[in-house]
Amino acid sequence: MYDYSSPFALTPPGAEPKAAFAVKRLRRALIDCELRPGDQCSEPEIAGRFGLGRAAIRAALTTLAGEGLVTAEPRRGWRVAPVTGALIGDVIQARRAIEPGLAALRLSADEAARLTALTRIAAALQGREDRQAAVTARSTDRQILDHLAARAGGLVGRWLAEAWNQADRIVAFFDLAGRHHRPIGREALVAALAAGDAEAARRAIDAAITAFQDFATDGLLTLPSALDWAGTRDGERTRQTGPDAMAPQAHPQRPPQQGDRT
């Protein structure tokens, strides 16, 4: 049954303008790596695959290019942005610059109760190693974050959403190689925001970013060969994604770490 209550549910076509639906549908396809990083695709191919009109596709791709998810290639169509060590480093840096500002939020009792219920769903999945459990835990975590981004509002809310979209895409990319990320619990963050404890909230935010950084860095260093095929199409092997998309080097480069000297 279609879950209309889910913040991740896609509104059926016809319930909103086709262009708006196309943006949502293609954004989700890009974040989930349904359209794989590094893939080249044409507007007719995308239109046929997703059952959307050419005009809506073109408008949607233009919007998503502004979010850094695709790039236009003259006379060739569109290229899905590759996942590279440089991208991972940028996402971590952006998150560390923006997310700590959420610590200044104060949750109402009703908000705290709703978000606490979500943390309990994630907690109930602890100990399960299957991919579906990890996906559900990440979806629950994103619902919490989206609520906080909505509270932040304006440019900050939009920047947060775009940074988290890229982080989710990176996680989905590693999923393709069989490496699944489970976010840390948000109980401490929700409790701190409900109590107005900004310092505790900042510590919880930092811990979550560090957990993502450790996961992505470890993935780059331990799974470089498995990532090569993540951007292939039609059985052709390419090196447009993964560590090999970076400048030539003997080993994949880890994202920048706090405390590194420049």
Automatic annotation (TrEMBL):
The keyword DNA-binding applies. Residues 16-83 form the HTH gntR-type domain. The keyword Transcription regulation applies. Residues 245-262 have a biased composition (Low complexity). One of its GO terms (molecular function) is DNA binding. It holds the Pfam family GntR. SMART domains: HTH_GNTR. Transmembrane segments: none annotated. Residues 231-262 are annotated as: Disordered. InterPro entries: Tscrpt_reg_HTH_GntR (IPR000524), WH-like_DNA-bd_sf (IPR036388), WH_DNA-bd_sf (IPR036390). Keywords: DNA-binding, Transcription, Transcription regulation. This is DNA-binding GntR family transcriptional regulator.
